């Protein structure tokens, strides 16, 4: 099963953008992520629709944050990229009349709902500014070492 790494990758990009305080082109972001600028534009468009970034075309244009890192949470980025559901509960529907399958699905649904609520609270609690602060402190500590 292929995992979707867009959340971590876009948090990385957004924190860099916030720390550098300027615009980044799709081409530059694509270089940072080792991907294609078209993929970047499509992903950034999702963030734009959610009000996290804005874009300006032409010479000197690019993507920029619409608000400070302290006002953007992991949950904001996750919702922009993946919608309302954080975890997807893959249930079996091969034998809907089977009591074992129904019981297993019921237990899995409850476990996923509980995990989703916990993850949502944590994602809402953590801002991108906090991630930037940790990164800067780590970089400073590494320079001293």
TrEMBL record:
Key words of the record: DNA-binding
InterPro entries the record matches: Tscrpt_reg_Rrf2, WH-like_DNA-bd_sf, WH_DNA-bd_sf
Keyword Glycoprotein in annotation: no
MF GO annotations: DNA binding
DNA-binding as UniProt keyword: yes
Stored Pfam families: Rrf2 (PF02082)
PANTHER family: HTH-TYPE TRANSCRIPTIONAL REGULATOR YWGB-RELATED, WINGED HELIX-TURN-HELIX TRANSCRIPTIONAL REGULATOR, RRF2 FAMILY
Name of the protein: DNA-binding IscR family transcriptional regulator
Natural source organism: Rhizobium viscosum
């Amino acid at each position: 099963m292929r995992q979707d790494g867009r959340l971590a990758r876009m948090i990385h990009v957004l924190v860099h953008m916030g720390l550098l305080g300027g615009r980044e082109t799709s081409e530059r972001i694509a270089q940072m992520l080792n991907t294609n600028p078209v993929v970047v534009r499509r992903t950034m468009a999702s963030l734009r629709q959610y009000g996290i970034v804005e874009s300006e075309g032409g010479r000197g244009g690019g993507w920029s944050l619409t608000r400070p890192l302290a006002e953007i949470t992991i949950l904001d980025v996750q919702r922009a990229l993946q919608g309302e559901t954080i975890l997807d509960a893959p249930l079996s529907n091969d034998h809907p009349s089977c009591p074992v399958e129904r019981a297993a699905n019921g237990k899995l649904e409850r476990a996923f709902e509980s995990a989703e609520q916990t993850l949502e609270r944590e994602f809402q609690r953590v801002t991108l500014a906090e991630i930037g602060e940790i990164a800067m402190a780590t970089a400073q500590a590494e320079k001293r070492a």
